Amino acid sequence: MKRYLCILLLGMSVTLWAQNDKLTLSGSIQSDVLIPQNDSVIGAERDGDQLKTNTYIDLLLHSKHVDAGVRVEYMDHPLPGFDSDFKGWGVPHAYVKGRMKNAELTLGTFYEQFGSGFILRSYEERSLGIDNSLLGAHLQLTPAEGLRLKALYGKQRVYWSWADNYIGGVDAEADLNEWLPALRKSGTRLTLGASWVNKHEKAEDHKLTGLPYKLNLPEYVNAWDVRANLHHGNWNVLAEYAQISDNPSKDNDYIYRRGYVAMLSTSYSTRGLSLLLQAKRSDNTSLRSQRDRQGSAAMLNHLPAFSLDHTYALAALYPYATQQDGEWAYQGQVGYNFRKNTSLGGKYGTNLRLNYSLVKGLNKNPHTNPVTGTKEGSDGYGSAFWKWGDTYYQDLNIQMDKRLTHDFKLSLMYMNQHYNKSVVEGDGGMIRSDIYVAEGKYTINRKATLRGELQYLTTAEDEGDWMFGLLELSLLPHWMLTVSDQWNCGVSKIHYYQGFVTFNTGAHRIQAGYARIQAGNNCSGGVCRYVPAIKGFILSYNYNF
């Protein structure tokens, strides 16, 4: 890997400096540091390291026709929750991108997403420990107005190396408004898209449990996706369907069954009103560059969770993670702004939002291999399309934002949640909770703002009730002071406290503090990473130039 990147970097330098165009340099530095401490009460351990850090340095060169970039990562002592496979340092990212008229070619590492990501989503999410970039070639063409073509080929990053398996794919998207004048005149916009992804992985031996037989694993796995996006007036409708060929893997217990996902999403927006309705059925949708991996490693695709990514601490205490083996997911949301100087809007107006999310498992009829009596080597199960299984997740929440005076704004939220901990985390049963949140923001003067939060979660399951309080003082243009405490007033009676000072100047941001953090899942967009309990001093530095 390092030898390849050194050659690539040399090529980048020669290519860029050979350009007659003016070069511009930009980049960023991000460093998160933890000095850990032991805490037997919450189970926090130093784990031998005096200091843990994840540090990233990005450098980008821009010109009229050629761009280039590199990233240095230092994770020799990774932060808690990043397992030993993350340990290391080096230059895992380097690329050269050339542009000419209607073509763009990238050599090196790159990210890409086809459609909604059902068959391909290569992206970076540092907080989750996800970086599944591709190393190879990426070509994008615009041969005609309204038509965009993409083609790629390469290997996927898996921690500090690249999988030996090759990924190829093509994507086409057509905006029919450029070709059909009648659509333009009617105020309608219709976009059609189609994608195909192929994974080649050598068929290594996988013997059936306790028997001399082995599975006949496919060397090629194919996936395709079709979609249509219709926009007319205030309405937008997206329909998408994807299918994956037989793909026995560790995720699905090595069954031979096609995977698919179907989604329909409708939204409406006008002044003061917004509506969203979504439905999705997925079945056996795990697609990885390495069939024996689990967790977030080597994932090629992504299925978004139809649930809100809550920012309030107790509302995010039990976050949902998309289940790759299959689910029915629904989401509905309505938002309305009551105008100023009306009975419900008052002097400053009122914003009200209602959201409902429901995720159900599939109704499955298990099939077994007649030789082994297990799932391995069979088609796994049957599943009637419209039938539901157990409840995986349910979230009903209502939020209100209202400015009471010129200087004070109040936000309130109520949330009722059902969280199947056995499905998402492996054990714990169904947790039913009610969550209440009040947030106030007071503008003291043009430079000082005080924000506070009070939250309460009540449940008869798991660890019982929780309380959370936060105070945050912002002093423009440089300072912010934050203190918070999350207290389990149910079973453990443990306090999880934090105190931070943040300083901003120009492109620099420094945050320092001391924290006691509860073990749990850190989630975003239906993807989660387990983080163990943490106690210690925390320092973060960000710089963009």
List the helices and strands and how they pair.
Layout: H1 2-17, E1 24-36, E2 52-62, E3 66-77, E4 88-100, E5 103-110, E6 112-113, E7 121-122, E8 124-125, E9 130-131, E10 134-144, E11 147-158, E12 161-162, E13 166-175, H2 181-186, E14 188-200, E15 220-232, E16 235-244, E17 259-270, E18 273-283, E19 326-338, E20 350-366, E21 381-403, E22 408-420, H3 421-425, E23 430-443, E24 448-459, E25 466-475, E26 479-488, E27 495-505, E28 508-517, E29 520-524, E30 527-531, E31 534-544
Antiparallel strand pairs: 1-2, 1-31, 2-3, 3-4, 4-5, 5-10, 6-7, 8-9, 10-11, 11-12, 11-13, 13-14, 14-15, 15-16, 16-17, 17-18, 18-19, 19-20, 20-21, 21-22, 22-23, 23-24, 24-25, 25-26, 26-27, 27-28, 28-31, 29-30
What would you say this structure looks like, in words?
The protein has a 24-stranded antiparallel beta barrel. The two termini are 28 Å apart. The mean pLDDT is 93. It has helices at residues 2-17, 181-186, 421-425; strands spanning 24-36, 52-62, 66-77, 88-100, 103-110, 112-113, 121-122, 124-125, 130-131, 134-144, 147-158, 161-162, 166-175, 188-200, 220-232, 235-244, 259-270, 273-283, 326-338, 350-366, 381-403, 408-420, 430-443, 448-459, 466-475, 479-488, 495-505, 508-517, 520-524, 527-531, 534-544. The chain is mostly beta strands.
